[in-house]
Amino acid sequence: MLILFILEIIGTIAFAVSGALVGIQKKMDIFGVCVLGLTTAVGGGILRDLILNITPPDAFKNPAFAGTAVLVSIIMFIPSVRRLLAKTGRIYDSLLLVMDSIGLGLFTVAGVQAAYSSTAEVNIFLITFVGVLTGVGGGLMRDTFAGNTPYIFVKHFYACASIIGALVCALAWQYLGSVISMIAGASITVILRLLAARFRWELPKA
Fold first, then answer.
1. Cα 107 from Cα 90, distance rounded (Å)
2. What is the pLDDT of residues 53-89, one digit of tens each?
3. Burial class (CB in 10 A: 0-12, 13-18, 19+), 100
């Protein structure tokens, strides 16, 4: 499915940028930056495929995703790029937010599509769960490797945006078709995530 491949490549680039930026922020060497970029980009998809019993996971069968993630991470590590980011702290924060939000939205609906393709009967809970795991799994692994409290536990309405987007995509699938449902689900996830960051929407905390 060409549209799914395009969406996953865009999501891979977005998540690789966000992962590499975290590595740069932590002052890691180029290997560490590449590992965080790669983990963020393909981690959620690997978890998704393991749950759906797709072995080996697509990330290992198609090197395009891993290769793209590593290439993007190397580009982000280039000294001139890092110097530009260092001079513009606000741009750095905005870039991390936008790229992470785009990756979250695209991988959430990619997970929904994979679940629909791999299950014989419609199970909204399974489909939504797989979509959310695909969306947040890479970021969860990135933050764990970087020694940060994962976004999904502390950031403004992060996992909830993915849940709502995945649920909308899963419910609309049979009525609006795959393309419109994926666009709607991804758009809702990204918009909610950006609005939550802009207006500081947060869930109650202990």
1. 26
2. 998 998 899 899 999 999 999 999 999 888 877 776 6
3. buried
Interval 148-195: pLDDT, tens: 988 788 766 889 999 999 999 999 998 999 999 999 999 999 999 999
Specify whether the CB–CB gap between 195 and 161 falls below 8 A: no
Tokens 């609005």 sit on residue: 195
Q: For residue 20, which of 63, 65, 74 has the smallest C-alpha distance?
A: 74
Query: 186 near 111, Cβ under 8 Å?
Result: no
Task: Write the Ramachandran bin of 184: left for phi over 0, alpha for psi from -120 to 50, otherwise beta.
Answer: alpha
* Strands (E) located in the chain: none
